[in-house]
Structure formats: structure tokens, C-alpha cells
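Reviewers of the previous submission asked for a worked example of the structure-prediction workflow described in the proposal, so we include one complete record here. The input consisted solely of the amino acid sequence. No template or homolog information was supplied to the procedure at any stage.
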Amino acid sequence: MLVLNPIDLINKAKYILIATHENPDTDTLCCAIAIGSMLETQNTKYKIFNKATKINNKYKIFDNYNKITNVLPNFYDLTIFVDCASLSRVGVKLNMKTNIINIDHHESNDNFGLVNIVNSNAVSCGLVVYKFFIDNNININKNMAGALYLSIYDDSKAFSKYSCDDNIYDVINSLTKLGAKPNELSLNFLQNNKLSKYRLYAKILNSLKLHNEGKIASIHIKQKWLNQTQADIGCCDDIPYEILKINIVFVVLFIKELTNGDTKVSIRAKAGIDITTIGKFFGGGGHKSSVSIKFKDSSIKSIKKLVLNKFEELHIVYKQI
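From that input alone, the workflow returned the following C-alpha cells.
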């Protein structure tokens, strides 16, 4: 079987689209920023696509922030997907006639690319991108190092996830030597949240309910709360991990009303709790302790009941603690 070299595809491309997933997190955007920075060093034309109409201003600390757009270019002959387990994660239909490089770390990735650079053991896509750079002797500049640092920091939840190993600290050490400044990044990015986030946080915390003797917690976001607080739906994606700090809680259901009438359920679990069965049953994907599911039903109450019943039926939490 012919093995294609992704660097050859990149070098031959005239215009590259870097595709990130809808409801973007720091991992997908920072990986795209790092790859875009690499392309700039070789004077390759590119855009970073995300369907969101608004991207958090915090990303302005990176030189190529202005390359992020929600408008697809008229022409591109190579698409690099980052942190997308499937083509549909982008949220829109792209030009499928281009060559595709698929860079990801999700266990549920369906290897949709002409070239697939997927490592489901990596705690973040940033680690996969870093290894791609190293394996191909690509020089990592300060902009790239900072983006990858934040990518790894955010998706590993400050290096606290069960899948973090010794390698992650070697990579972080390397990135700091290459120009990432943890203090600067903390001040300008991690400590740069809008007040609206905390107004929304309060409403989400007020929705907290405990189930199954406190082993499962549920929280939710309503669209009207976003309008009331002027907050972005993704700004509170860290809140399930705060709920997991409650000593009796092992699993958190985070239910979000979406603008199109669909509902998204993000499920997070403590280390050692494997929730992939739940994700697969409902057609979702992710990792052992982190899965996401979409429902056409817009009723938070009925969806919560449906997912909780499946947990009880499968005895997932009870079997594993």
C-alpha cells in the first residue's frame, strides 16, 4: 500500500484550509494556529476555518489570529482537519475533492483522510501536532510553541487527566525552551476571562442536580441564559471538571441547548470510569472519560432521563468504583 508523505502534500498545495471543529475549544484552535504558523514560515497561503461567528478575543495573543474565519475561501486544494473525529465535526460541508490530512487524538476517529495522523493515546491533539513537527524536522517558533503549550495545558486540564504520562512533561519542557512563556500565557490567556462567563457560571451551578446516590451530577445551559448574560456557549466548558471535584461525584452530564434546536450532552468522568459505551450507544464519540453526544430533541428533561436510564441499565458507575 502506498504511504503518502503529508509534507509532500503540504509543499505541493497552493492554498490550504485548516479546518477546526464547531463549538471550538483551545485544543482545536491552538493546533490550527500552530500549523498555520508553520505554513507562514514557508510562505504558503492558508486560512483557519471555524463556523462560529465569533471567536474569543483571547486568541489575539497569537500572531496569526486574523487568519481565523467563518467564510470558506473560493479555492483551496488541501484541507488539514485538526481535532476532528469525523468530517461532520466541522459543522458544515467542505470541498471533498481536495486532499485531506487528518490530525487527531480521538479514539472514535474514523480515519477519513488521505493521510491520517491519529494517536488516541495522546491527551490532546497538540501532542500529535508537536510530534508531527518533530518527526518532520519542522522548526517550532515562539508562536507555535505558545499555541501548542496552551493546547496541551487546556485539553489535559492542567496536566491532571489520567492519560497524562511522563512524555507530556518532556514536551512541555521542550516547548518552554522553544519560546512558550507560561507566565505570559497565564496572564494574557488563562487569566483573561470575561465577566459574562461568571454570570453564566452562576446559572449553570444553580442547575446542579445529583443522581444515583450522588455518583452522577447533571448541569445544563439554556439558550435564554446566553442571551441574558451575553456569554459564549463554550466559555464554561471547564465547569464539569469543577463539579468532578466534589468527592462523591464520579460522572457529570453537561447538557446544552444549541441555537438550531438540537441538544448536546458532554459527559465527563473521573479517572478509571470508562464511559465510551454510553457515547457509542447514542452515536457520540470521544475518549474513555470524555464523550459528547448530540440529540435532535430539545428537551433537557427528557434527554437527561434518557442518558441517566442508560447509565443505570449498564451499571457503568457502580461496576467501576
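The chain has twelve helices and twelve strands. We consider this example representative of the routine output the project will generate in years two and three.
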